[in-house]
DNA sequence: TATTGTTATACTCTATAACTATA
DNA sequence: TATAGTTATAGAGTATAACAATA
């Protein structure tokens, strides 16, 4: 039979990784997308919703819903930006930090499982190659 | 800054490839998903809708809609399976074959553009590595 | 005038449940 | 009883348009 298309491979690689990450994060009450936002907001420089949205390549209206969900779970907090009152500074709560601690380890383990069919060298190479294919985050 | 997560890289690699393939296929009046179905149905062995769905890892109800769309465009034809009247044999029409001829070249070019930041060796390696990460199609 | 956050809304993709017809 | 196709429907996930507050 013919080889699978690149699009098929990327789509299904994505699906499989999403399943593994989703299962790994379930005990923490968040999904992969919420984890990505939470991890990004755990930053030394204060980040507005728009900053975060640009970094993740999603729309600012989507970010509103993500931050809403994280705030409902008491994992992040909105506060007004001191110098520009149009902006929110969004930052993890104490609970958010604790959650993130465990969640990072869980996600690392899920990625490791996803890559377990590869040698360490090939796994690293996959990362390097993908980074060269993907436009760097804006901001 | 920290390195992007594997999930981010796979998602955005997918998005970029989809855009390129979508643009390449626009002149043929089909999108990437329809192309995948049409290319799969262009097979020496007759394929039912369920066969095709399993191969692409999508639901059979999704396949109904895809075949509907391709049939409306006169690119495929349903006919009853000679030995099992529960099944449809779905096969490209003459127009489907002609469309596929050009579309394959367009998609190959789009993939090449997607991979253009990589050496030929790295591009081949990406394929090999992804194939090892993705479960092979059922059937 | 432009930017940030927000809301309402709509669109795409996909799956689940229930039905029909065949086996 | 199980399978193939179909329909109706619902759920993610996402974006566009329009608005208020602020710059």
Automatic annotation (TrEMBL), chains A, B:
- Recorded source organism is Nonomuraea fuscirosea
GO biological process terms, alphabetically, are: response to stress
**Its domain of life?**
Bacteria
The name this protein goes by in its record: MarR family transcriptional regulator
Q: Which residues form a coiled coil?
A: none
The lineage, from the top, is:
Bacteria, Bacillati, Actinomycetota, Actinomycetes, Streptosporangiales
- What Gene3D superfamilies does UniProt report for this protein, alphabetically? Winged helix-like DNA-binding domain superfamily/Winged helix DNA-binding domain
Q: Molecular function terms in GO for this entry?
A: DNA-binding transcription factor activity
Which Pfam families does UniProt cross-reference here?
Answer: MarR
Looking up SUPFAM superfamilies in the UniProt record yields:
Winged helix' DNA-binding domain
């Amino acid at each position: 039979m013919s080889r699978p298309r690149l699009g098929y491979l990327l789509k299904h690689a994505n699906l499989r990784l999403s399943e593994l990450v989703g299962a790994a994060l379930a005990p923490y009450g968040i999904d992969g997308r919420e984890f990505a936002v939470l991890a990004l907001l755990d930053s030394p420089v204060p980040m507005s919703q728009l900053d975060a949205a640009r970094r993740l390549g999603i729309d600012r209206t989507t970010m509103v819903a993500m931050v809403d969900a994280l705030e409902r779970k008491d994992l992040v907090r909105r506060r007004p930006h001191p110098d520009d009152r149009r902006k929110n500074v969004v930052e993890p709560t104490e609970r958010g930090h604790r959650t993130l601690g465990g969640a990072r380890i869980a996600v690392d383990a899920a990625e490791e499982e996803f890559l377990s069919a590869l040698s360490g060298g090939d796994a690293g190479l996959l990362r390097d190659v993908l980074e060269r294919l993907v436009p760097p985050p804006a901001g």
